[in-house]
Amino acid sequence: MTDITPQPLDEDAAWAAFDARDRNADGRFIVAVKTTGIYCRPSCAARRPRREHVRFLDSPQTARAEGFRGCLRCLPDTVTRDRQAVAAAIALIEAAEAPPSLEALAAQVDYAPHHFHRLFKRATGVTPAAYARARRTARAAQALAAEPSITAALYEAGYAAPSRFYADSDQRLGMAPGQWRRGGEGVNVVWTIVGSPMGSVLVAMTERGLARIAFEENEQALVRSLPAAAIGPADDATRDHIAEIVAATEVPDPLLPEPARRIAFIEAVSQALLGTD
Ligand SMILES: [Zn+2]
């Protein structure tokens, strides 16, 4: 299982998160209530005790070692386990040649498929299948530039069927694979960079889909990847539309590994831009 190290604890921030029942704080710390002897996750729905009756502890283990019992309402022990299962599934997807099925993933992290699907989506903002597809498309884009043929690139990226590859590439490369290999020859690309809580996001679009979407501060990598395309800045309306979608996209669980959070966020934005899921 992937190790998830908790952040150091700021008492005022911890109280604010607890007071607001902030779900993002779950798994970061545990709230132990001295008067009841019970510990909760920060988002527990139970009534808030007075601040002087509360202790913030780093983990359920610490709380138990100090004699507290887990709350039966918010089940604080399950938070860490859920996160670890999502992180483990991400590692499995990254290591797999082709996208694993939901059933296979869930079985490997010991959850029921339906429950795990919800859990994964809540933590990352995308489904396990969408996450896996995002990885495969990224591999395909790279392979198309490097491999001697489209067939070789398709194989390299883990596609089982050419039809799927072509369907994906239209939206996810913004052009046909052959055009992509020729550096975007004959393709018009507009790009913009908008802010997000996780950093600047470059979005480059064609009439057919997304030519590039990544955490980038300038268009240099875009220009390098599509040297033959006609590339220009997006108009204000397009830019505003993209900025709105990025702003409306939920940030993945802060305790998941950073590369996975970035992949998931980009995938969630891509889906919203393309109107797919
Ligand atoms: Zn509770």
Characterise the protein shown here.
This protein has helices at residues 11-19, 60-65, 77-95, 102-108, 113-124, 128-146, 150-157, 162-172, 177-181, 220-225, 236-248, 258-274; strands spanning 30-33, 38-40, 54-57, 69-70, 188-194, 201-205, 210-214, 230-233. A four-stranded mixed β-sheet has the order 3-1-2-4. The protein folds into two domains: 11-75, DNA Methylphosphotriester Repair Domain (3-Layer(aba) Sandwich), CATH 3.40.10.10; 129-274, no CATH class. With 277 residues, it is an alpha/beta fold. Mean pLDDT is 91; it is low at 1-6. Helices cover 48% and strands 12% of the residues. The chain is elongated and about 70 Å long. A hairpin with a 4-residue loop joins β1 and β2. The protein has twelve helices and eight strands. Zinc ion (ZN) is lined by residues 40, 44, 46, 71, 73-74. Residues 40, 44, 46, 71, 73-74 line the site of zinc ion.
Short key terms for the protein model shown above:
elongated; four-stranded mixed beta sheet; 2 domains; DNA Methylphosphotriester Repair Domain; alpha/beta; disordered N terminus; binds zinc ion; 277 residues
Cα distance spanning the termini: 28 Å
**Approximately how much beta-strand content do the residues carry?**
5-15%
- Proportion of residues in helical segments: 40-55%
The helix-strand sequence is: HEEEHEHHHHHHHEEEHEHH
| Counted beta strands | 8
Uncertain stretches:
1-6
Catalogue the ligands: zinc ion
How would the global form be characterised?
A: elongated
Query: Which strand order does the major sheet show?
Result: 3-1-2-4
Radius of gyration: 22 Å
Q: Counting H and I runs of at least 4 residues, what is the number of helices?
A: 12
| Structural class designation | alpha/beta
Number of domains: 2
Overall pLDDT level: 91
Strand count, sense and barrel status of the largest sheet are: 4 strands, mixed
